[in-house]
Amino acid sequence: MGYNREEHVKFMIELKQKDLNAYEKYMAEYEKIADDVIGELSSEDIEEIRLNPRPAIQHFDLGHFIRNKYIHGSKLEFASDSDLISRRIVRMIVEKLLPEYEAYPLMFDLFDHGDVFVSVHRFAFVRHRQKEYFSLLDTVYPSIQEASKVEDAFNEDNRNAGIACFDNTDERNKVRKAVWKKTEKLRFESLLYIADGLWDFEAYEKRANELDVSEEVTMALKDFCRNVIQEHGYRSLFVPGSILLLPAFDGLMPEEQADVLKDLDVLFDQWPQGILENIPEEVFAQREVAQYMLGKDGTLLAKMPQWQNDKELVKIAVSNGYTAARDVDQSLMEDREMLRAAFANATTDILNDEFYEQYADDDELVWLAVKADSSNLADASDRLRDDKELVLFAIKNTDDVGVLNFYDDLSPHMQEDRDVVLAIAACPSIPFDFPPERYCDDDEVGRLLADENLHEDHFTLFNMSPRIKKMWMSEEELERWGG
């Protein structure tokens, strides 16, 4: 379940109106949990949250930890949805770790509003330009406050009228659209003002001109920066102005090159895939730039015809985006070394790709693919999806929800295998129709499914026999899931 801020706001408002003491107790409990969690974070964890302050991104890691340790089975769980509570606590943690925003609390709403606000923040903090950033923010913050007031007034009207936040009548949609248009305009104008102050286009244009970069290319790159920040919706990002120097990278001083690459690191550390799909091809003229870019996003090889026969660069490309194989001389992809590079770094679905599907029964390559991402087992050959050693390896190698991505594709024989069943029962997330019927009264399977160190709650026992449920479930859980 995703975070519905309005639903949680409604819950807290109603609680505050009904019982102020109870409201204050909940807020104090949230605060205590937030402080406890911060005390357990490493310095690296803290720095990553400071540079990536979007609660949604933390939902499955930090949020999962909070739900397991502090919410499930506590009084908090039965007061409101556990996801909503954990997201509110994560938000508190983010706020506490970024005291620089004490005078700008609405920025935390914008960080959850879209990646672009986080990307501007990240650039300013990583490149140590906080002073300029907050000076620019001072100027536009009144507009951000106005947008919030408009939005809050709309939500308050809905609550007072008893209208659900996602009511879809024509009348409400018309009002909602008008509110959205006004608030987005205020927020985007604020964002663009800050971006204009950080792009440094004038200085980069001057340097690019000194290096004989054509005015046409420079203007195209400036337009690209502006387009990416406004035309990609939730994928919009702040692209540093230093990309204007990429066409002449070899002519830069070493310290200038280092600064340009640091700026690109900030960009690619966020959402690399697809961000540069419309960038002018002139930026890839320098081999060192092409090598760097392909190391971040191999699919960019499609925009580099001059490098599509370069074996070293092609290998880098397929290692960072297996679909790059579509854009190279196919004789290069007959090289076993090239195939290993692609499969060893494959994200999901490589064996569902038109080119790579021919290797679905290749033991070495499928093992590499499953090691890279266990969900690749779903598209392996029938023979390999019935290979017990490979299946158990995939289960062991999976993330919290990975088994769900290939369980239905296992052979019936593997789904019924006791070792496979026990391995799946020990995974954090299990298939909805698990376990097979013959194991529904199995004590060992029941013990694993009931282990609270493995699973968030005892819903995992939903398909088990009444005897097993009574062994592990509380009265309240039996009432909910005893079925």
Describe this structure in words.
It contains 22 helices and no strands. The two termini are 23 Å apart. The relative contact order is 0.05.
Which percent bin holds the helix content? 55-70%
pLDDT < 50 runs, ≥5 residues: none
In sequence order, what are the helices and strands, one letter per element?
Answer: HHHHHHHHHHHHHHHHHHHHHH
What gyration radius follows from the Cα positions, in whole Å? 26 Å
Look at the helices and sheets and give the structural class: mainly alpha
Q: What's the total count of β strands? A: 0
Proportion of strand residues: under 5%
Total helical elements: 22
Main sheet: strands, sense, barrel: none
The averaged pLDDT comes out at 87
Oligomer: single chain
N→C terminal distance: 23 Å
Q: Shape, please?
A: flat
Helix-strand layout with pairing:
Blueprint: H1 5-18, H2 20-40, H3 43-51, H4 62-71, H5 82-97, H6 107-111, H7 115-126, H8 130-161, H9 170-199, H10 201-210, H11 215-231, H12 254-268, H13 287-296, H14 311-319, H15 336-344, H16 363-372, H17 388-396, H18 412-416, H19 418-425, H20 443-450, H21 466-472, H22 475-481
Summary keywords:
0% strand; flat; 483 residues; mainly alpha; 22 helices
Summarize the structure.
With 483 residues, the protein is an all-alpha fold. It contains 22 helices and no strands.
